[in-house]
Amino acid sequence: MLKNHTSEHFPFLGISECYSLTDFRCRTTFYTALTRLLMVDLGEDEDEFENFMLPLTVSFETVLQIFNNNFKQEDVKRMLIGLARDLRGIAFALNTKTSYTMLFDWMYPTYLPVLQRAVEQWYGEPACTTPILKLMAELMQNRSQRLNFDVSSPNGILLFREASKMICTYGNQILSLGSLSKDQIYPMKLKGISICYSALKSALCGNYVSFGVFKLYGDNHFDNVLQAFVKMLLSVSHCDLLQYRKLSQSYYPLLECLTQDHMSFITNLEPPVFLYVLTSISEGLTTLDTVVSSSCCTSLDYIVTYLFKHIAKEGKKPLRCREATQAGQRLLHLMQQNPDVLQQMMSVLMNTIVFEDCRNQWSVSRPLLVLILLNEKYFSELQASLINSQPLPKREVLAQCFRSLMEGVEQNLSVKNRDRFTQNLSVFRRDVAEALRCDGSTEPPGSLDMMS
């Protein structure tokens, strides 16, 4: 089987039209299984790997010839779809640095440009672009540290550059499709965008690329892919971001990576774009999907922590920090112009703690503390609003709950102080729940909404 995985022996590996394109999905599973068999005795034997890849090499060479001669487009398209699915199965099974490097050396620089060209040519055909984008997303996964190349190897940067080109190509082309009907928007556009976001997230969190290198050497691939991210994001409504689960579960973790390690990019966004991002976080905080709401809490925490630290450093502006100070100043200025944005989020988080079944209390507590420290006046108003909305007998109990919440909490963001607040919040939530359960009429959940 390892030596004879061709259409002659396995007809479903061919391009015959008796198999539909959806049947090609089986090829990914087939090649994952086959590659796991190969891995049993592969070790560092490059010749054995080359022999195993020979049928795919022949197919790619055929594709190259057809591309150059520009004929039988349908045949080459089916062949590429099959190859992308085959390679994704192989890449999924290669979980060691040695074996993954063999695959990368086989693909780059000869065959990856073929996939780039296919995305550029058939961007409006998801049956073709989806398998290719999924292959790229799989290649970006640093599973089992397989992408931790040797210190003398540029492979991590080369791989990211290829991914950047593909995401930019797809992003620019897909936006040229214009408006799509409700039943077409996901398969034709949003699915591809979600795969691009997954690939970018894997690259940003994989720890195999030093992104500072790009700016240092005047390479624009990193900037280009971030701009493509923004363009694709602005073409998606907030409603669609949350309506399509795969899209939300790729966008929000990507945003978490960006706010964690690339706040200079976030603070440089145009004000309408930055507010769009903040609104997407605000709406994601209330979703029932814990993965999404936790990512939103973490992203919000990174943003407001950055703002808090900037304000704390005001007046201490050494020259070496001038660039960071300017970035913080931009963020502060934007927040001063739109104070309601962070107030709204504080209100949402307090509503979640007080009135809802909060399953990620730890995640909620982190940004909530920073929001309270940034805007104590609004927190006092929120507190008064909740207390005054309850019957008189309960007001003193709730007031004591709020006093206990901030007991021992200092005006800083040290780990110890954050943990203290998180512990206080746990007790606060339990005590408030007990107080609201006691006999007497209460306002329905959402009492704090009037402060939003």
Automatic annotation (TrEMBL):
The keyword Ubl conjugation does not apply. Transmembrane segments: none annotated. The keyword Nucleus applies. Belongs to the exportin family. It is found in: Cytoplasm; Nucleus. InterPro entries: ARM-like (IPR011989), ARM-type_fold (IPR016024), XPO4/7-like (IPR044189). It comes from Trichechus manatus latirostris. This is Ran-binding protein 17-like isoform X1. One of its GO terms (molecular function) is nuclear export signal receptor activity. The gene is LOC111819540. SUPFAM superfamilies: ARM repeat. GO terms for cellular component: cytoplasm; nuclear pore. It comes from the Eukaryota. Keywords: Cytoplasm, Nucleus, Protein transport, Transport. GO terms for biological process: protein export from nucleus.
